[in-house]
Design brief:
alpha+beta; Immunoglobulin-like; 2 helices
C-alpha cells in the first residue's frame, strides 16, 4: 500500500492545500477531497457530509466516482473536545457505479461536542483520505 500511496503523495498534498483554502472560504464546512488517477484517468471523490438537526450532528462518509470503482473503506469518528469520549470505526468493502454517490458510514452524535471524522479509501484507481472537524467548534 505504501508504494501505491507514494505516487499520490504530491497530488494529495495539493488536494490538502486546496481543501484548506476552500475551508477558509466555505461556510458549510463540507469540504470534499478529490483524487484523479488510474489507468484511464478515472476520478473519484470522497467527502464527509455534516448535517445538524435537533441538537444532533450527523456525519456521513460518501464516495462518488465518474467510472465504476470498488475497494475498501474505513470511516472513523473521534471526539476532539472535552465533553465525553467517542471513538467509532466502521469499514469494509464497497463499490460505486458511474455517477453514483454511495454512503459508506454514518454516525449521529450530540451537536454539543466536537468531532474529528476521517474516511480512508483504497481502490484500484488509488487511495485517498478525507477529514473533517464538526460539531460546536
Amino acid at each position: 500500500m505504501f508504494a501505491k500511496s507514494k505516487s499520490l503523495s504530491s497530488l494529495l498534498l495539493l488536494v490538502a492545500g486546496l481543501a484548506g483554502a476552500t475551508y477558509a472560504a466555505a461556510e458549510s464546512g463540507d469540504i470534499p477531497a478529490v483524487v484523479e488517477t488510474g489507468p484511464q484517468g478515472s476520478s473519484f471523490r470522497c467527502e464527509i457530509e455534516v448535517r445538524e438537526q435537533g441538537g444532533m450532528v450527523s456525519l456521513s462518509g460518501v464516495v462518488e466516482a465518474e467510472v465504476a470503482i470498488a475497494g475498501s473503506y474505513r470511516f472513523r469518528v473521534e471526539s476532539a473536545g472535552g465533553s465525553g469520549n467517542a471513538s467509532i470505526s466502521q469499514g469494509g468493502g464497497f463499490s460505486a457505479g458511474p455517477g453514483e454517490a454511495v454512503t459508506l458510514g454514518r454516525v449521529m452524535l450530540s451537536a454539543n461536542g466536537v468531532y474529528d471524522a476521517s474516511l480512508d479509501l483504497d481502490t484500484d484507481a488509488g487511495s485517498v483520505d478525507c477529514e473533517e472537524r464538526a460539531g460546536r467548534i
